[in-house]
Amino acid sequence: MYSITIKNHKTMLLFNEKHEQLNADAVAADLANLDNVATPTDDEVEAILQDYYKQALQLEGAHRGFTASFAAPAFPGIGSILDAIRKFICGIVNEGSTTQQIIDAILQAIASVIPGGIIINLLVKPIIKYILSIGIKAFCPVNPA
Fold this sequence. Notes:
Layout: H1 24-31, H2 42-64, H3 78-90, H4 99-113, H5 121-134, H6 136-139
């Protein structure tokens, strides 16, 4: 069994589109190579998250033997998905965190927010590139007390 342990020592399981367990260290290492990934805009990140959530929900449903449908009231707003990812990441990393710690935090956030902990590299890489390109300070704004 493979897992990633980060600052708060929580572990997670990651799966591919065929619901096969992934080696989390190998996934994190692969996701660190973002040289050929364009930095997405805010709008592109929202579209990626929407597509990612839908695909993961459909894959998880198929794995469990049911069909996922997307009724408007039941489908979470993309802002709420990004907010959930932001809250998770910003709770465990800071400006002093290494790139690898940030990637690990992003993976852990995605595994807990996206149905089934399914990692779709083509969709995860732009999200990581986006967060790394704007920086943790900008991604995790400080709320005044």
